[in-house]
Amino acid sequence: MSPVRGGFTSTRFVLVEPSHPGNVGAAARALKTMGFSRLVLVAPRVAQVQTDPEAIAMASGADDVLANAHVVPTLAEALAGVHWSLALTARSREYGPPPGAPRAMAGEACRLTATGDIALVFGNERTGLSNEDVERCTALAHIPANPAYSSLNLAQAVQVLSYELRMAYLDAGGETASAPRRPAQTVGTLAANDEIERMYVHLENALIALEFLDPANPKKLMSRLRRLFSRSGLEREEVNIIRGIAKHILLLRSRDPGQGPS
C-alpha cells in the first residue's frame, strides 16, 4: 500500500464527548475535504447525532462520513488497535506527552502510518480533553493561534490538523514539490494503545507489590512514567519486555510476600 493511500485510510479522527451536533457535522465536512473518512465519536451528548438535522446540514455533502461515524462509549475503545495517537490541547499540561506543533506532528504521523492505525484526538468544546485522556495518547499537539484570541471551534481544529496531515501524506507520496524528504527511519512494530494500557496496569501492580508505589499516596508516579514511555514510541517487543519484568516481580513477591524492598 502506498504511503498516501495508507495514511488516508489508516487515520482515525476521534471526537471525545462532542456537545453540539453542528460541530460533528462540520468536522465530517472538514475531513472529507481533506480526503479522510474515519470519524469516531466518544459518548456524544446527542444520541444518534449522525441523523441529527443540524449535523446533516453542517456536513454539507459529507453525509457519508457522518453516517459512517463509529460511536463508542470510551476513549479506550476508540483507540483500540491504534499504534500512535495525537491529543490536541489548547492549554499546557503538567503531565502527559511532550507537546509539538501540528506540522511537526503531522510529519511524525506520516512516518508512522505504515505501522498501522493512528488517531487524532479532540476534546469537548467546553472543557477539552481530561488529563487522563491526554495521558492515554502517545503525543500532544497545540495549535499556535493568536494568543490574544486563541479560541478555535472544534471543527476548525479538525480542519487545521487534517490539512497538515494531508500535506504530509501527499509529500510522502511525491505528489507535492516541497523540501527534500529525509531518509526514512526504520520503525519496528509499534505497540497498540490497548497493549500499552495493559502494560501500565501490569507495571503499576508490580510497583505496588514492591511497595515502591503507595496506592494511597501515588504522587503522580504513573503519570510521570507515562510521560517517560511516551517519548520512546514503545514497540510491541519492548512492551512485552516490561510486562515480563512486571510478571516476574509479582511472581517473586507471591512466593515471598514478607520480603520488602531493599
UniProtKB/TrEMBL annotation:
Belongs to the class IV-like SAM-binding methyltransferase superfamily. RNA methyltransferase TrmH family. Catalyzes the formation of 2'O-methylated cytidine (Cm32) or 2'O-methylated uridine (Um32) at position 32 in tRNA. This is tRNA (cytidine/uridine-2'-O-)-methyltransferase TrmJ. It comes from Paraburkholderia kururiensis. One of its GO terms (molecular function) is methyltransferase activity. Homodimer. The lineage of its organism: Bacteria, Pseudomonadati, Pseudomonadota, Betaproteobacteria, Burkholderiales. It is found in: Cytoplasm. Residues 12-163 form the tRNA/rRNA methyltransferase SpoU type domain. The gene is trmJ.
